[in-house]
Amino acid sequence: MMTHDQMAFAVSKLYPDLACWKDYWVAHPVESGSDKQIGEAEIVEWRADAPKPDLKTLKKTFNTHADEFNAQQVKAIRRAKLIGSDWTQLMDVPEQTRTQWAVYRQLLRDLPQQKDFPSQIVWPKPPTY
């Protein structure tokens, strides 16, 4: 089942000059009272002059570029983890704490070098406080 993020990514591969939420809108149905996806994503608004792609084309395009999409998703999570741990490198943080967190942060930076990146990720565990 394709998510709205995957669909927007596929459209961007087919039409790099189009902008999501300007030239087209994508969505997927969710379970009432939650954010659990319960159906296929769809293009709910198409304002571009280019022909609107069908679901089969979008799925094929996404599958062709899935590793790129997955890498972007992993890197976004990694970026958030790095930003969330920036404080650990401030000079008023004890040296032992800075050192432990520096190792963790380097492991995050090294994620793209993992053997099966981006399909299989072994996330490092952050140090305990």
Summed up, the helix count is 4
Largest sheet: 2 strands, antiparallel
**CATH fold descriptor of the largest domain:** Phenylalanyl-tRNA Synthetase, Chain B, domain 1
Q: Count all strands and give the number.
A: 2
Q: Strand sequence of the main sheet, in spatial order?
A: 1-2
- Terminal Cα span: 40 Å
Extract low-pLDDT stretches: none
The name of the CATH architecture of the largest domain is: 2-Layer Sandwich
Estimate the strand proportion. 5-15%
Structurally, the number of domains stands at: 2
Q: Helix and strand succession?
A: HEEHHH
Mean pLDDT: 97
Reading off the top of the CATH hierarchy, the class of the largest domain is best stated as Alpha Beta
Q: Radius of gyration, rounded? A: 19 Å
Global outline: elongated
* CATH-level-4 superfamily name of the largest domain: XkdW-like
Structural class: mainly alpha
Considering DSSP H and I runs of 4 or more, what fraction of the residues is helical? 40-55%
List the helices and strands and how they pair.
Blueprint: H1 4-14, E1 24-27, E2 42-46, H2 55-64, H3 66-84, H4 95-109
Antiparallel strand pairs: 1-2
Helix pairs in contact: 1-2
Task: Write a brief caption for the model.
Pfam families: Phage_tail_APC, XkdW. The chain is mainly α and 129 residues long.
Structure, described:
Helix 1 (4-14) packs across helix 2 (55-64). The chain has 2 domains: 4-64, XkdW-like (Phenylalanyl-tRNA Synthetase, Chain B, domain 1, 2-Layer Sandwich); 67-113. 11% of the residues are buried. The chain has a two-stranded antiparallel ribbon with strand order 1-2. The chain is built from 4 helices and 2 strands, in the order H-E-E-H-H-H. It is mainly alpha-helical. The chain has helices at residues 4-14, 55-64, 66-84, 95-109, and strands at residues 24-27, 42-46.
